[in-house]
Amino acid sequence: MNLAELFKNLKPYVWPYRTLVIATLTLTLIGSFAAQVNALILQYTVDSVNELVEDGKGLDAGLKILTFISIVLLVKEILNLFITFGQKYFGEKLRIYVSRDLAQAIIEKILTYRMAFYTNQDNQSGKLQTRIDRGIESLTRLVQNFFIDILPLFTNSIVALFLMFNANVYVGLVGLCIIPIYFWITQRQANRLGGWRRNMRNYREQKSQGIIGIIDSITVIKSFNREDIEAKKQLDIQIQLTDNQLQTRKTSFFYDGIKTFIEQIGVVLIIILTAYLVLDGQMTIGAIMFHILLFNNVSAPIRQLHRIYDEMNDAMIYSESFFSIINAEEETETSGNYIPTELKGEFKIENVDFYYPNGLHALKNINMTIQPNKITALVGLSGAGKSTVINLLDKFYLPNNGKIYLDGIDIEEYDTKYLRENIGLVLQKNHIFNGSIEENIRYGNIDATEEEIIDAAKKAYIHDQILLLPEGYQSKALLLSGGQQQRIAIARMFLKNPPIIFLDEPTASLDAIATEQIKNSLDAIKKGRTVIIISHSISQIIDADYTYVMKQGEVVEDGTHDEVYKMNGTYKEIFDAMAKSLNIDKIAKTMDDDDEENF
Ligand SMILES: Nc1ncnc2c1ncn2[C@@H]1O[C@H](COP(=O)(O)OP(=O)(O)OP(=O)(O)O)[C@@H](O)[C@H]1O
C-alpha cells in the first residue's frame, strides 16, 4: 500500500473530525512563523550590539535593545505556549477519536464476515489480533505524528527556507540542496528496511499465536511433559525475530551516520558562504547566526525524516493488513431478502458438493430431504461430513455445487438473519463464551425474563447444579465442566425455542443420568419441529424417524432405522459396533441378576 492509498483509506475516519484538523493546521501555520522569531531576534541582537560596540555607546543604549528583545521573546513564548498546547491537544484528540473509530469499525466489519474468514489458517485468533492491534496502533500514530510532528516541522522548514532565500539566494540554495539528498538517502534506507519490517510483522504474529496456543493447550503440554519442545518452538521464533531486529538496527545506524555527515556538510557550507558574504560587505555579522539558525530549522524536520519515514512505513505495512481485513468485501456474508410468512421446515439438499477453504472435498454430491415434524439422524464415522451438512443448512458456508432448499425456496434467497433466528443449534464444542451463566443462557433470547431463564435451565436439568455454585447464575460459565457447559447450551436453545433444531452430539459430554434427563427434554421439544440430530449414541439414533448414513462425504444409505439396518452396509457395521461396545450381554445379565435378587 502506498501513501496515497493509505490516506485514501484513512480519509473516512479522519473526515468526521475535520474541524479539529482545520484548528490544528491553523495553529501549525501560526506556530511556524513564531518558530522563526528566534533567528530574526538573534540576528537583530548581534547586529545591534555590534553597532553599539563599534559606535562606542554604553550600557544605557544597550538596555533599551535588551528590553525590546526580552519583551518580543516573552510575548512569542507565551503565544507559543498556547499554540503548542492547542496543537498537541487537538492532535491527540484526533488520534484518540480516530483510534476508537478504527477499532470499532473493524470489529463491526469482521462480525459481518462469513465463517470461512474465521476458519482460514491465516486468520488464527492471535495472528488476526496482532494484525488488528498493530494496524490501529501504527495508523493512529501516523495521524498523531502527522499533525503534531510532521506538519509543524515541515511548515517550519518551508518558512525557514523561504527566509533563507529572501536573505540570499545562494544561502537558500544550500538549504534547498540538502533536502533531495536527504530524501534520497532516507528512501534507500526505507527500501532496505521494508523487507525486514514485513518479516518482523510475521514473526510478531507467530509469537502471539504461539503464546495463545500454549495457553489453550496447557493441559496437553503438561500431561505430555512437552514444556521443553514448546519453549524451543518459541525460542526459534525469538531468534529469528532478534536477528531480524538487529539487521534493521544495523541498516538504520549506517544510514543515520551518512545523514548526519551530509547535514554537517550543509552547516559548514552555510558558515563559509555567509562568512564570505559578511567579509565581502554584503551582509552584517548577525547574518551568520541568522542563517545557521534558519538552516537548523530546515534540517530539524529532515533529521526526523527517517523516524517519520519509519513510522510511515510501519503504517503502510501494518495498515496494508489492517485495511485488507476491513475492506475484505468478498468475506461479507451474503443474505437474500426472502422472509416467508410461515415456516414449514422442510429442507431439500440437491446434488451438493462442498469444499472447505483449504480445498478439502467435504461433501460429494449429497442429496437429502429433511422432513418437518420428524427427527432425522445423521450417522457416520468421524470426519464423514455430518457437521458440515449442518454448517451448510445454517448458511455458515455456501455449497460449491448444487442447491439447498427450505420449503421449496433456495436458502441463499432467505434473509440470513431470519433463517438463523429460526434455527436452534447445539454444537459439540465452542458453545460457551466468556460471561456469566445467566448471560450465556440469555443469549438464546435477549429479552427473556429471569423466570424464563430459570425455566430453560430446569428443562436442561442444570438449574439445581447452578444453585449449588457460590455465585449461582452469575458464576463464570467457562469454569463449568464440559457436561455442564453442554447443558447451558441446551438451556439456551430451549430459551430460543426455534422451529428448526440441529443437535450436533448434544449429549456427548454428559454423564448417563444427565443424558437420560436431557433425552427426555429433547424429546419434549422435538415435537412439531424439524430436528436433525448427529449422534454416536444408539438410543438417540434408534429414536430417529429417518436416517442418513454418511461415509467420506457421501450419503451411502438412507431410510428408517430398520430399513438402513437391513441394508447390511455401513449403518449395520456402525450400529453393531456401537452395540458391541456397550457390552449389552453383560449389561443385560447384570440387570437380570439384580431383578432376580429383588424378586
Ligand atoms: N473448517 C474446516 N476447514 C477444513 N476442513 C474441515 C473444517 N471443518 C471440518 N473439516 C474437515 O471436513 C471433513 C468433515 O468434517 P465434519 O466435521 O463434517 O465431520 P463429522 O462427520 O461431523 O465428524 P465428527 O463425528 O467427528 O464430528 C473432515 O475431514 C474434517 O477434517
TrEMBL record:
Give residue ranges for domain ABC transporter.
Answer: 347-577
Q: What is this protein called?
A: ABC transporter ATP-binding protein
Classification via Pfam families: ABC_membrane, ABC_tran
Gene Ontology CC terms, in alphabetical order:
plasma membrane
Recorded topology in the membrane: Multi-pass membrane protein
GO MF entries: ABC-type oligopeptide transporter activity; ATP binding; ATP hydrolysis activity
Q: Return the Gene3D superfamilies for the record.
A: ABC transporter type 1, transmembrane domain, P-loop containing nucleotide triphosphate hydrolases
Endpoints of the signal sequence: none
Q: Which InterPro entries match?
A: AAA+_ATPase (IPR003593), ABC1_TM_dom (IPR011527), ABC1_TM_sf (IPR036640), ABC_transporter-like_ATP-bd (IPR003439), ABC_transporter-like_CS (IPR017871), P-loop_NTPase (IPR027417), Type_1_exporter (IPR039421)
**Record flagged with keyword Transport:** yes
Keyword entries, A-Z: ATP-binding, Cell membrane, Membrane, Nucleotide-binding, Transmembrane, Transmembrane helix, Transport
Q: What are the subcellular locations of this protein?
A: Cell membrane
Subcellular location, principal: membrane
Please list every transmembrane segment annotated in the UniProt record, as residue ranges. 63-85, 169-185, 260-279
Q: Which CDD domains did the record assign?
A: ABC_6TM_exporters
Domain called ABC transmembrane type-1: residue spans: 22-314
